[in-house]
Amino acid sequence: MITGNFEYHQPGSIPEAVALLSKLGDDARVIAGGHSLIPTMKLRLAMPEHLIDLQAVKELKKISVSGGEICIGAMTTQAELIASDELHKAAPIVRETSLQIADPQVRYMGTIGGNVANGDPGNDMPALMQCLNANFTLSGPDGERTVNAREFYEAAYFTARDDLEILTEIRFPTCTGGYAYEKQKRKIGDYATAAAAVLLTKSGDSCESASIALTNLADTPVYCEEASQQLVSNGLGDDSVKSAVASAMGQIDPVDDNRGPAEFKRHAAAIILRKAIQQAWARA
Amino acid sequence: MSKQKINLNVNGQSVTAEAEPRELLIHVLREQLEITGPHIGCETTHCGACTVEMDGMSVKSCTIFAVQAQGKEITTIEGLGDPDKLHVLQEKFKEHHGLQCGFCTPGMITRAHRLLEENPNPTEEDVRFGIAGNLCRCTGYQNIVKSVMAAAEEINNPESAT
Amino acid sequence: MSATAESVQERRAALKGLGTSRKRVEDARFTQGKGNYVDDIKLPDMLFGDFVRSQHAHARVKSIDTSAAMELPGVIAVLTAKDLEPLNLHWMPTLAGDKQMVLADGKVLFQGQEIAFVIAEDRYIAADAVDLVKVEFEELPVLVDPFKAELPDAPILREDIADEKEGAHGARRHPNHIFTWEQGDKAATESVLSEADVVAEEMVYYHRTHPCPMETCGSVASMDKVNGKLTLWGTFQAPHVVRTVASLLSGIAEHNIRVVSPDIGGGFGNKVGVYPGYVCSIVASIVTGKPVKWVEDRMENLSATAFARDYWMQGKIAATKDGKITGLWCHTTADHGAFDACADPTKYPAGFMSICTGSYDIPTAYLAVDGIYTNKAPGGVAYRCSFRVTEAAYFIERMIEVLAIKLNMDAAELRAKNFIRKDQFPYQSALGWEYDSGDYHTAWEKALESVGYSKLREEQAQRVEDFKAGKTRKLMGIGLCHFTEIVGAGPVKNCDILGMGMFDSCEIRIHPTGSALARLGTISQGQGHATTFAQILATEIGISADDITIEEGDTDTAPYGLGTYGSRSTPVAGAATAMAGRKIRAKAQMIAAYLLEVHDNDIEWEVDRFVVKGAPEKFKTMKEIAYASYNQAIPGVEPGLEAVSYYDPPNMTYPFGAYVCVMDVDVDTGVSDIRQFYALDDCGTRINPMIIEGQVHGGLTEALAIALGQEIAYDELGNIKTGTLMDFFIPTSWETPNYETDFTETPSPHHPIGAKGVGESPNVGGVPAFSNAINDAFRAFGLTHTHMPHDHWRIWKTANELGLHADS
Lengths: 284, 162, 808
What we know:
The complex is a heterotrimer.
Chain A: E1 7-9, H1 14-24, E2 28-31, H2 37-42, E3 50-53, E4 63-66, E5 69-73, H3 78-83, H4 85-90, H5 92-98, H6 104-109, H7 112-117, H8 125-131, E6 135-140, E7 143-148, H9 149-152, E8 153-155, E9 158-159, E10 166-173, E11 178-184, E12 194-203, E13 206-215, E14 222-223, H10 225-234, H11 238-251, H12 262-283
Parallel strand pairs in A: 1-3, 2-3
Antiparallel strand pairs in A: 4-5, 5-10, 6-7, 6-10, 8-9, 11-12, 12-13, 13-14
Chain B: E1 4-10, E2 13-19, H1 25-32, E3 51-54, E4 57-60, E5 73-75, H2 88-95, H3 105-118, H4 124-130, H5 142-156
Helix pairs in contact in B: 2-5
Chain C: H1 3-15, H2 27-31, E1 47-53, E2 59-65, H3 67-71, E3 75-79, H4 81-84, E4 91-93, E5 99-101, E6 107-108, E7 114-120, H5 123-132, E8 134-139, E9 166-167, E10 170-171, E11 177-184, H6 186-195, E12 198-209, E13 218-224, E14 229-234, H7 239-250, E15 257-260, H8 276-288, E16 292-295, H9 298-304, E17 307-319, E18 325-337, E19 364-373, E20 379-381, H10 389-407, H11 411-418, E21 427-428, E22 434-435, H12 440-451, H13 453-468, E23 474-484, E24 496-497, E25 500-501, E26 504-510, E27 516-520, H14 529-541, E28 548-552, H15 569-596, E29 603-606, E30 609-612, E31 615-621, H16 622-631, E32 642-647, E33 656-666, E34 672-682, H17 689-708, E35 740-743, H18 761-777, H19 792-801
Helix pairs in contact in C: 10-18, 14-15, 15-16, 17-18
């Protein structure tokens, strides 16, 4: 399995990378960790003529927490996300999710930017980012703009990112309360059969805020606004959780694949989501 | 496509290879540098037979272009011990029958090496989770896990170990 | 204990012979990355070959345009069937008496089939050139369901033999039909079934899967045109057979061909067959005059070389009301893919499927197997089992469970009631085998006691109550299995491959200083032959295993052998090793007697020496004898100390085992969790307990994979759906449990050292144990049988169909 030929570029800064991408246009692809892109290139499903490697762009590798906001550079790897105690204190759901991505070697190379930007519905980070209400910073020839994760995903591999833009950083508020990322998969290294990200805050016995998003159950991640709202309005009683789960299930559109038929995925997704809600509530 | 010079530090030695940008690190290691310990088992980043260490990370060298490794430090199984003084992991894999056909072994030991660098006191669960990016078809992993645990034990308590 | 006795023990221990958990001599190189596998071979001016493959499962090849590929700098040649035809190499014989296209000859019959072979300066250029070869197809209707193969509208796949009414295994009733193979007494069995108190029926499907060793298949061919010698390195489980086939195909005299199996990164049956890649690398080297390497990638491996299983086994089992089995009937529809390339002994087109009466004393039985062509890859290899034995074991161990349900009996009790008793061995089975030895009741009782069987059943019953009361969503399954294998093929009178009798061989040279070299016709793929064969020999000839080098895999030096698969190395080559050792000892006895100046009969063997009877202080060690054999003129005795043995086994060996698997099964997510796995193996005499245990761990893990998710699946157009390790399930360390191993030891009466072989037992017995656990979890809710693989969604589907999701 051999990729096509390409020319390799290694810009040292964001402006340099953006300029290169503008110049090379459709013939170029940006490579972050490469662990989705390189296998695709080996299958010759992608044959870019230019690869723009972001590894030398130092400002893309960072984790900072300040003023209630977390900012993560796009080239930060999953291993770095897992290792950061500061991040773990501020948003423990990130480590929980990252540990469920692929395997150790892939996590050393795989980046948060690559995971959220390529639009693969199997990736875990996009739903997490929707759950966290994250904003993505995109840099392009016309400067910087911000797109919220909940508006970013259009279809499988189609996102709000313009071809000439690079996703440079991710910002989201620090988390309080309970959290859970529950994922059913066939084995380590597999994409989710169904996965759910849940954040909940508690005030006394009532639910103050809730945020739910789902992975690999449609051609985009699924942010479940109505289900989240229902938990806030009706609390975490059995009936309320049941109806929130039912609402979320109304939004998904899984497809048949080797993980099973859509009917099974719907069932498993409901179970996984209920588990995630219960776990998050127990931790709230 | 023209070839580029790639400078690497492999197992403590500075080396230079020439490769097209699309040449994978595993191919440059195996075919140009004749470091044939790391193997190719799947080519889709699942099996881990090609695992090497790159700047302190365990990586699958079938999913990295050699040009991306420019200037980096690479350690392969060949860099872990030598015939006169095997690495403790190599010793323990022999002692506890942690290998059979040997094809996954270089990647497995290289991965276990990094795992123990980062977590010198792993539980069995830590080891099983930590080597889950390396497939083995022969051993059922039980003796691999035993070997890694025994190596950790010896590293931590060199005197008490047999 | 006397001082002498102690010293005998010490000397015995120093040999590191039979029964010792000797550390492996192979490991030094493997742990240091110094193994030498096929892709590690690098020769001057070596070229690289790569295949253009079919994306269609069934199509006519209208044209192949290689011109653009040929224009690419670095491309040396592109071979198609047209180029091979003048050499008569566009087709090749299969091990099953059929023939197979080396390169597509007018049509393609499965997705991934080889169409053209590109030869280029390196693998990068070859890959680019593959993309530049333009193939024009005309798609044909696709046949993927073997049960539709003989319908009036079925497409005819093998037009080359469409009119042939006779195949290698008798009459063919349809162009898509390969053979019907029958064993046992049909009329008697049908009569037993019609008169029985109880008959249980089930269709048991053992799905298509693949051995998928970590190393894929590959070869390097180097034709030395000056000396007329061809050297072929490759992933060959049977290097001598490859040499013979290569000679017959190429016309190169066999003495001018050297076949070498270097280190092999796992085989599991995948590397028994002869593949188009091997043939093309040879032709390419002959054409170019340069060495040519071919190594398949993982997708090619999964889609083109050697699937396993794909047996639809319709069963009927008859019994009395109180559970004594009276008859067994089985009809198997065997999906062989596009060419019959099964690696079975010639006379056994369904391998040893007729071991399907298992561990039970079943007086009457009948088996029929129909082989069918479909638009799938060829193969049908014995994936970590003797030929079709895992299919047979799975069939009978499922049928026993199905019968237990019908009788409303405990499945452990039903087994014990029907086991062949110890005093019945050697036992003649209804389907024609003579089981050599066994003690099934002892093994079974030990297994049940070790796991606390009755307590487990109590816990399971409580779990069912809790589930019904809404307290849990997890059921508990207890998977039982008592298997009997048939390995060590086999007696030359009825076992051959391409006409070569399935003997095996060992040649020993004792060096003057008392160390030794032994060469065998087998080849290790991880089993540790260099370690264990030296142990067999150490015990036989009294030289420490550490002083014995074992060599295999080079046909220029090793004696002819049939190779390593079907757990045959220990039963056949292990026996040859012991027998050759005994020849050494016999000669050594003459030398020792001469040196001790006594009659041959006045000395006796003791661990590592010959001792004068009644005078223990007078002796000659093997080391002394070895030296003498080279430096003394002994009347009537040739100098030197060498021996060779070609061993034709009088019978197969019949390892057996008792396995218990305990699982929790989540009815909502379909996730199963292995709580406990107990494996008792009886492989006869135990050569190296450490290696046996390692083999059991590995075989069980392969069984786990097969039972719980691993499959080669096709869609209705014949597209392979599980072509990468994302979808082809190989469990990681995380999904794999720890296993408990145990043993009993019932030696084979006909094997020189009583050993039976073990490498494949855990796969043969493991698959039914895992599958029975899943099935058993649902028994209380009315399930009789559900097909493998038991992955999450299929378990969920079973629960769903049983109505277990009604209120969730």
